[in-house]
Design a protein that fits this description.
8 strands; Rossmann fold; two-stranded antiparallel ribbon; 217 residues; alpha/beta
Length: 217
């Protein structure tokens, strides 16, 4: 029997990579502790995601854009990322990244891993420095959900044929809407909200979960 076409959508910070990019930016801005505390509370669902992100981005004001090269050198792919993306493509699936992080880093990961779709926040830059503001629409939990739906529609797939993976409170809506929503090494509220969870930092182990669920349906 032919493999069913699917759409796999993953969060980036804390899921596809081991780090939170905004925390690394905060360290380079000399405001690491303040930003990391806001990040942790936002990912646990203790703070409004939009406000928490706006407040953290404001603390990056005046950083030179060259910091993205430094940050990219500091990030590491989560174990199994390359294997799971390769396997997904071999099965004929599409792979997307939807992130509350930033295109300045996500786009490099897209090229490196040959990802099909990506959506992330953009940081406003003037005269080669960050302004402390976002450019364009903020990637909220609702936007993550809408993006999952839009990419499924582009591929003529029902939501039942989608897979969503994430670790933070801002991933809950898309995890609950996907045919298979998997909380990955997630914060307690996210783990509780998702139908499935993987608590070991090896993304390749998503595949047995997906296959098991598919065989039961």
């Amino acid at each position: 029997m032919a493999e069913e076409k699917r759409l796999l959508v993953m969060d980036v910070d804390g899921t596809l990579i081991n780090e939170e990019v905004i925390d690394l930016l905060g360290e380079l801005a000399g405001r690491g502790q303040a930003i990391a505390e806001l990040t942790a509370r936002a990912m646990k669902g203790e703070l409004d995601f939009r406000q928490a992100l706006t407040d953290r981005v404001a603390l990056l004001n005046e950083l030179p854009v060259s910091v993205f090269d430094q940050v990219y050198d500091k990030i590491s792919l989560t174990m199994g990322v390359e294997a799971v993306v390769k396997e997904a493509h071999e099965r004929g699936w599409k792979v997307g990244l939807v992130s509350g992080g930033f295109h300045e880093i996500v786009d490099r990961l897209v090229d490196r891993l040959r990802i099909d779709y990506a959506l992330a926040n953009r940081l406003e830059v003037k005269s080669g420095r960050l302004t402390g503001r976002l450019k364009g629409e903020l990637i909220s939990p609702e936007i993550k959900l809408a993006t999952l739906k839009a990419w499924a529609e582009v591929n003529s797939l029902p939501l039942s044929q989608t897979i969503a993976v994430g670790d933070g409170a801002n991933d809950i809506l898309m995890l609950q809407a996907a045919g298979i929503g998997i909380a990955f090494c997630a914060k307690p509220a996210t783990r509780k909200a998702a139908a499935y969870h993987l608590d070991e930092r090896d993304l390749k182990k998503l595949l047995p979960i997906i296959d098991q669920v598919s065989n039961q349906s």
